[in-house]
Input
Amino acid sequence: MNKNNDSNSSNHVILRVQNVHKSYNGVEVLKGISFIMNKGETKVIIGPSGTGKSTLLMCINRLVEVDSGKIFLEDDEITSAKNVHKIRQEIGFVFQHFNLFEHLNVLDNVRLGLIKVKKMNKEEATNIALKELERVGLKNKIDLYPAQLSGGQKQRVAIARALAMNPKLMLFDEPTSALDPELIGEVLGVMIELAKSGMTMLCVTHELGFARAVADEIIFMEGGVIVEQDPPQVIFNNPKKERTKEFLNKLTKLYGKEENQ
Amino acid sequence: MTFFQIVQSSWRYMLDGLWITLFLTLTSVVIGFFIAILLALSKMYGNKALYAISNFYIEIIRGTPLLVQLFILYYSLPVIGIRLSPLTASIIAFFLNSSAYQAEYLRGAIQSISSGQMHAALSIGMTKWQAIRFVILPQAIRRFIPSWTNEFIYLLKYSSLSYIVGAPEIMAQAKFVASRNFEFFKVYLFAAIIYFLLVTGFSEVFKYIENRLKIPGTLSQARE
Amino acid sequence: MESLQIVINSIPYLLKGTVVTLELAFFSIVLGFMVAIFVSIGQLYGSKFVQTFFLLYERILRSLPELVILFLIFYGLPIIGIRLNPLVASIIGLGLRSSAYQSQIFRGAISSLPKGQVDAAYSLGMTKFQTFFNVIFPQAMRISLSGWTNEAAVVLKDTSLAYSLGVIELLRQGTYIIAVTNKPLLIYVICGLIYFALTFSLSKGLGYVEKKLAIPGYEVRRG
Output
């Protein structure tokens, strides 16, 4: 099921994170994070809560500013970019709590960015929105409002909303951890399809089944640093670090065997 | 005249007015509170007739201006032989008015106590009125405190209306002073400062008390 | 029968007063609304100085009796050379007071919105202002509506204070009629009923709007 791991040969770098530091109220959450993502890669970040995984994603999208270090999207430096809005259009973000616009129906949620940010005309925006909603299997729900949807449906709309902007990179911040167990599958299904279609994806998630199925690499973070970064086979079968092994054991106990989906 | 001279020559009058304002406010809020308990309980637990009467009263009072209520009491009652002093008429108008608002806040506070409390009280053999008296009201009153303090502040400000019928509170004193020295703006500015200090002072004190008494999750719901 | 005749004769005058009362209420609420939007945006997005300024503005207006505000404006503005007729002075006084309360309602609504939606809007590349007008504002307006209904009724009732500046609104028309007929109870009760009818229809009307604008499946918290 794994994608070709040496697709790196194309070596088109989408995201480069260099020595990123971030503190909140004197507590250092990120202590020098560096990694690279090539086009079409999917990387999964795992690690105990409070290790700065979400903060890292927020930094990439400049929802949070880094203290030091640099982040590049292709050749553009995100961390110093004047026009942060331009950068954000090229990076999709999927939130743990969906964050749909409660006052807009499904179609308008997906269209809003296209019309207001990309200044598209309504017709064009509608076509794109419908295409993305079809991709997440919700084309028949376009008139409903967020409060009328299940959690899984909400998250799929949120994914469509991010995809509609045609981003170069998608960030997922624990997209399934606010969902009831029976709803997780539909969201992971969409994400797996997306990964296979060649989207570059950076996901914070503890769905090990998903990681095994599509991740090119798994990044294990703890205490604000990257402890280990390896392909799933290595991480799952013979991790290089003892901490990785301990954490995975704990995860498997918590979430059961890694065969969601 | 400078502002300072105005203050110097008028503070005694204003102080007299201040006492009347405070007396007016406090009396009205307290009497209003007791009527409010009756109104709220009738509306929530009373029979159809009690409900209809208290509901009608609350709606009419809340739907009409305080000044109109005051005029009816002060100017109309003499027609049927009841002559009230401006101060008495004001107090009656204010507590009748305040009782309707306080009743609604009280009702809100009572409703915010979960129905489980009532069930639990009934399940140990209490009557409905015992449950209200010993379980519901003691909890509801605490939640009611923030609205009550807001109501106090509200009446403190609106007690100025009694000036229009001639009760000798702050505004009436201000008018008295201003009509002698013709410094209307400066005198009213002085009155404004007194009100500002009064309202701010009371708000701070109430805030302090509320924080001391705070039950986590307390809701306040007051008219503004 | 005499009373009935008096009532019938009074109707045109009371209606005239009612129109003035409605004018007062309408313009005060609109003025209050516009200033409130300005004030709340300043408080939310302004510099420290702007925030403090508007906070003080709100604090002062909320601490003063409406009557005092009216007198300060009526007697104060001529000092700086602005002479206003009582009607305009009343609208300004009622409107400014209301702006302080409306901006509080509005800010409360904004801060009750889940912060995640703002992040989501930013993540799509929206600017602060795009986010405000497309995401925050439409939702805050809906949440504010019940508070606003309340505030509009307060302003409507407070228009009676314009009486004290000599504006010939409903209550003063009533007083004029009483001066001729000497029927205070009858006339003031009728005035009261007119006010009641106005506040009642205002609440019902805005309640209807609120229901119309409600977002399906989304329970708007009642104030």
Q: What stands out?
A: Confidence is low (pLDDT under 50) at residues 216-222 of chain B. Chains B and A do not touch (no CB pair under 8 Å). Chain B has nine helices and no strands. The two ends of chain B are 36 Å apart (CA to CA).
